[in-house]
Amino acid sequence: MTKISSIESVQSLVQLAEMKGVCDVVISPGSRNAPLILSFTSNAYFNCQSVLDERTAGFVALGMSQSTGKPTKLSCTSGSAVVNYAPALAEAYYQKIPLIAITADRPKHLIDQGEGQSMRQEGVMDNFLEGSFNLVEEKSKDDAALNEQLINQAFDLAIATSKPVQINVPLSEPLYDMVEQPTAQPKDLKDDQPRARLDDSTFESLKNQWKASNKVLILVSQFVDRGSLEQTLGNLCNNPKVAVLTETTANMYNLGFVSCIDRTLELFEGGEDELQYIPDLLITVGENIISKKIKTIIRKHKANIQKHWHFGDVPRDTFQCLTELIKVNPGTTLSAISSEQDAVGEFGMRWRNAFYKAENVHKEFMASLPFSDLKVIEQVLDFIPDASNLQMGNSSVVRYIQLFNQIRTIKYHGNRGLSGIEGCTSTAAGMAIMSQNNTVLVSGDQAFRYDSNGLSLHESIDGLKVIVINNSGGNIFRIIPGPNKHVASERFIEKMDERSIQKLVDYHGCDYQSARNEESLETGLRWLFDPTSTKNEVLEVFTPRLDNPEILKAYFSKIKGVDAQ
């Protein structure tokens, strides 16, 4: 028989989580959160995962929600455990991932009184939460009513905004008493907010701005709710004044889209005709943009951009020229605004021609490319099975991948909210828990070492496939200008590290192979993606540390030497 904690605030939490359909929970061990642990794990409705390290747990939960699109709960004990959630919650905030951190706390009168595992937990992560809700110890019906209201608000806010929240729960001993029938009877106080719509005057204003613009650039970055947007943008590619640029994390595909932004920009950036690629109207959809090049060139010419619309819930002024924040569905809105085919021009075709020319140079360069980071990415993308989830590690990996045409049959993911390297493996592990499809992580060696605890879930997952590109440290710092000029770079910026990755993999009980050239890489990839294997496997690929940056520079120089016209 299902049992539940005797503590009524915990009863309300558990019952409301079930009422609102929030079934996934990642639990880190502890005693203060024991009432939550025992209540969740005794109820068959909840899908419970046990993760020792709270930082890892946070990213595992993030990966689970990336996969499902639904909130995932986190449960931890009090004290420093709470702030170990911070990196994942901050990433979730800027990536728009709904996490619900349920943090156990000491009773309020014990805070700052020398009690073990106690600290000021209320509001400790407010800067990157959509909301924090501090329950009270229930000593009256009014206390119970307040907690019920706060729990409802927390769950509804996470669901409505797709952003993280914290529910801080003070708990007094005894912590382990359970009952068969809950005494709390909470109600699901649904907060059904009507969907935002444009008023008539705003709609007419936007429509007139669209008509007045002869050059429209639509840039789509990390975006979850595609809805009708992909079809709308595909139709807009037929409008001669429109160019549609997409990053891999948008997960949108159309032959009319410009999908490799950096290599396309290299064709004309700094050239005489650069201004011809700058729009009158810039429209952005999605979260943080990966391409630094597009940010640089748009900011450079922001004075030439008459209007910048951003579809979202916050005024994201990435290009320093924002004029309109539009809080409605971008697909249906753009379709309605652009319904009249009133345009002539060549702006869209100009962008697409640049894309095609850069692609031809790309193919020519890759045909004679020696073994390197760039060559490895090409081979890996050729081997990834259809319908896979691809988790892209940060720093150089995600940038390399964006130099290759998007593969329609795979989904691209990456922690681009804050772009940190600390949770790539754990996020991939969380996705592998929830997804029926292959989950593939491509990571650098430093990111993999940093987050190796993500492999601790190997007994809970099947078929996580990891490719570690080992270029002996943070090779990104040999690509960007500046760090390689300083003697401290290798030790303190790149942080060269030759500790064995194989030993890490062996420790966590996963299978391992390595590759050092094209032939052994092909062999390794066939092993990794063997359709009969459901094992968790790591393929380490060693690449030439000093050659990689020079090869990438040569790649961009080759493209820049082509006439954009």
List the helices and strands and how they pair.
Elements: E1 4-5, H1 8-19, E2 24-27, H2 34-41, E3 47-50, H3 54-68, E4 72-76, H4 80-83, H5 86-95, E5 99-105, E6 131-134, H6 141-161, E7 165-170, E8 178-179, H7 200-212, E9 216-220, H8 229-236, E10 242-246, H9 261-268, E11 281-285, H10 292-300, E12 307-311, E13 324-326, H11 330-337, H12 347-367, H13 373-383, E14 389-392, H14 396-401, E15 411-413, H15 424-434, E16 439-444, H16 445-450, E17 464-470, H17 476-479, H18 489-494, H19 501-507, E18 511-515, H20 518-528, E19 537-542, H21 547-560
Parallel strand pairs: 2-3, 2-4, 4-5, 5-7, 6-7, 9-10, 9-11, 11-12, 12-13, 14-15, 14-16, 16-17, 17-19, 18-19
Antiparallel strand pairs: 1-8
Helix pairs in contact: 1-6, 3-5, 3-15, 8-11, 9-12, 9-21, 13-20
